[in-house]
Amino acid sequence: IFSAAFLQESCCAYVIALMAVYWCTEALPLAVTALLPTLLFPVLGIMKSKEVCMQYLKDTNMLFVGGLIVAVAVEHWNLHKRIALRVLLIMGVRPALLMLGFMAVTAFLSMWISNTATTAMMVPIVQAVLDQMNNREAEALQMLMTVSGLGVSPEEAADRTRMCKGFTLCVCYAASIGGTATLTGTGPNLVLKGQMNQLFPQNGDVINFASWFGFAFPNMVLMLALAWFWLQLIFMGFNFRRTWRCGVLTSAKEAVAYRVIREEHRRLGPMCFGELSVLLLFSLLVLLWFTRDPGFMAGWATHLFNAEAEYVTDATVAIFVAVLLFIFPSKVPQLCFWKSHSTDSQASNSPCPALLTWKVVQKKLPWNIVLLLGGGFALARGSEVSGLSLWLGNQMSPLHSIPPWAIATVLCLLVATFTECTSNVATATLFLPVLASMSQSIGVNPLYVMLPCTLSASFAFMLPVATPPNAIVFSYGYLQVSDMAKVGVVMNIIGLLCVTLAINTWGRAMFHLDTFPTWANATGM
């Protein structure tokens, strides 16, 4: 006869295994699978329905919704495209600089808006530049063939193909890398934030926007630089004089590329009042996030709101700025409305639409991720209540004899491999609660394992189906699966090396990873 505790643990393990299979195979839509705890936990006697449903709209979900509403406004007003084109004009169009410019812009935008939206916006710009460069080169070759009677050499055709592959791949890789730099940049980061609050409620808000940025941004810059170097090496060769055009006048192809970017920028016209307003509100959001609780000093919320308890969080700030987007007008308000009485002026004095409407948000906001996050929090809570987390932790206690850095490296490799086959949010959701239990059982700071594994969940570089940015780039026809796999293997290695360096250097100092924190002794139970 099995005990009631054993039955609860077994039932919870069954639900997690079932959802893992469904998430990997996508037998059901990811968001629908995330709803299964609301059905199975009450039926199997693990949690009451009211308790399960409360997990689906936590503080982290509201942070995600608020941040994405601001991102939708940036995308709706085409502000991201203006920023991208302006930076490309500044960076220049020499081959190495052009690739670096595309990667830097894509990574920066992915920090604030979704990786998919960034890639979908950037790839057509890359495509337009490549088309014009190739057309110009084709015209020159046609003239050469007419004069000399020679054909296009295989080397020239291969160079053109390699350049197209390199420029398209750099966009999807930069989108995945850039999303890791901010707490709202990609789903796994928010899963970590939510799981930390769920599993370790006394953690003192150790993971917030400022602390995550301080840890992840240097790692992102390092990864981006190494990725650019690797793509240069494999697709353009490391010929310094050739790729940087040192001492060489601007070629016809480069001049054409610059004209394409400049023309795209010109079509946007001057910045309107709506774009300026969105830019100001976006800047306000970032400023409030950074200064709420910077860690090294008291923030604006420390004494004003959070003296007794943490009333104001990053989610509060995100929702505040999101609400302002529905209030601020999209055109300059006309204050002296009483001075004119003509029909035209009366028409112009009609109510001005706000910067953002709910119809736009409803269409563009990825609601499925909200359910995915909620499903992850429900799984974590069910694991605690059933005792499954404690049981898993006890089974992993023999790992105490293995050095923590070795455990973290192996787990990062496992997560990076797993995320190639399933959603990065689902990967983080399945692994992080188990890693938290393991850390407690072997006496290691949970962040020492959870931080690098969270970043590794975004290292989906090898397959077109691994992440939407990869699929978007693959659909343009320049790449084969083998191309992405060969380049992506090295990208995964680069990511693992960078994360290992980050967690053992500045990460160790920021989060005091050498010590086992007191908040890790108490769980959400």
Describe this structure in words.
The protein is an all-alpha fold. The protein has helices spanning 4-25, 30-34, 36-43, 49-53, 59-76, 79-91, 95-110, 115-148, 154-178, 187-199, 209-235, 240-244, 252-267, 273-292, 300-304, 314-325, 343-348, 358-364, 367-386, 388-395, 404-418, 424-442, 446-456, 468-474, 481-504, 506-511. It contains 26 helices and no strands. Helix 8 (115-148) packs antiparallel against helix 9 and helix 21 (404-418) runs antiparallel to helix 25. It is globular, with a radius of gyration of 26 Å. The two termini are 27 Å apart. 44% of the residues are buried.
Indicate the topology.
Layout: H1 4-25, H2 30-34, H3 36-43, H4 49-53, H5 59-76, H6 79-91, H7 95-110, H8 115-148, H9 154-178, H10 187-199, H11 209-235, H12 240-244, H13 252-267, H14 273-292, H15 300-304, H16 314-325, H17 343-348, H18 358-364, H19 367-386, H20 388-395, H21 404-418, H22 424-442, H23 446-456, H24 468-474, H25 481-504, H26 506-511
Helix pairs in contact: 1-3, 1-19, 3-19, 5-10, 5-14, 5-16, 6-7, 6-13, 7-8, 7-9, 7-11, 8-9, 8-13, 8-24, 9-11, 9-24, 10-19, 10-22, 10-23, 11-25, 14-16, 19-22, 20-22, 21-23, 21-25, 22-23, 23-25
